[in-house]
């Protein structure tokens, strides 16, 4: 029986073209971005890795999978990431790529990741970031595969890294955390491209 690929699955013979875009002030989000990249490469993806500053003219539609990462700043994406998303969205709107009803574009996916310290309200400080970023991709017709929230040290403030709601988060993410992210990314890629 011939497989119906209209459900946005990509046949395994086709290597997905992926881009990992991130902004990082202290290195936490950068570490996660590199773990995501490594998982995609290990799974067989063709991967570009760019900072937000390097990705200003990146066309999301040129990729099968767009991965975007930011730290949570006051339950919002970092200012540079927010500006990047708004600029890309405005350009797509001018080009007519933002469609009423946001119809799915087959074979276009997004993965979002957010590092956070949560000294005041924990994970609740990060979730709005993922939901906010996801709306940009959903409005373009991309299927948001997941939002990952990665607990990370609050560099520059020992109190925020030891006395906040999340407890002692110094040294996070650990090498084990990053390995889990790499493996999770690899599985996500293989699940998308798997033929049942």
Could you outline the blueprint of secondary structure elements for this entry?
Layout: E1 17-22, H1 28-43, E2 46-51, E3 65-73, E4 76-77, H2 79-94, E5 109-116, H3 127-140, E6 143-151, H4 158-162, H5 175-193
Helix pairs in contact: 1-5
CATH class: Alpha Beta
What's the average pLDDT?
Answer: 92
CATH topology, which one?
Rossmann fold
Largest sheet composition: 6 strands, mixed
- How many strands? 6
**First and last CA, distance:** 12 Å
Q: Name the helicity range.
A: 25-40%
Q: Flag low-confidence runs.
A: 1-12
How much strand content do the residues show? 15-25%
CATH superfamily: Flavodoxin domain
Domain tally:
1
- The CATH level-2 architecture is identified as 3-Layer(aba) Sandwich
Order of helices and strands: EHEEEHEHEHH
| Total helical elements | 5
Shape, per Cα inertia axes: globular
Rg for CA atoms: 17 Å
Describe the overall structure:
The protein is of the alpha/beta class and 196 residues long. It has five helices and six strands. The chain has one domain: Flavodoxin domain (Rossmann fold), CATH 3.40.50.360.
Which properties best describe this structure?
single chain; 196 residues; alpha/beta; Rossmann fold; 6-stranded mixed sheet; 5 helices; 20% strand; globular; disordered N terminus
């Amino acid at each position: 029986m011939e497989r119906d690929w209209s459900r946005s699955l990509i046949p395994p013979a086709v290597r997905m073209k992926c881009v990992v875009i991130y902004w990082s002030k202290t290195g936490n989000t950068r570490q996660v971005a590199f773990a995501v990249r490594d998982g995609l490469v290990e799974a067989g993806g063709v991967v570009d890795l760019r900072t937000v500053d390097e990705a200003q003219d990146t066309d999301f539609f040129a990729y099968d999978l767009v991965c975007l990462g930011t730290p949570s700043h006051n339950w919002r994406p970092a200012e540079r990431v927010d500006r990047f998303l708004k600029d890309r969205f405005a350009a797509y709107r001018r080009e007519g790529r933002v469609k009423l009803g946001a119809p799915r574009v087959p074979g276009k996916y997004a993965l979002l990741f957010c590092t956070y310290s949560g000294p005041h309200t924990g994970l609740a400080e990060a979730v709005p970031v993922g939901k906010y970023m996801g709306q940009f991709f959903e409005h373009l017709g991309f299927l948001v595969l997941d939002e990952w929230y990665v607990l990370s040290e609050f560099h520059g403030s020992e109190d925020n890294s030891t006395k906040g709601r999340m407890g002692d988060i110094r040294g996070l993410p650990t090498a084990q955390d990053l390995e889990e992210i790499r493996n999770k990314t690899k599985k996500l890629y293989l699940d998308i491209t798997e033929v049942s």
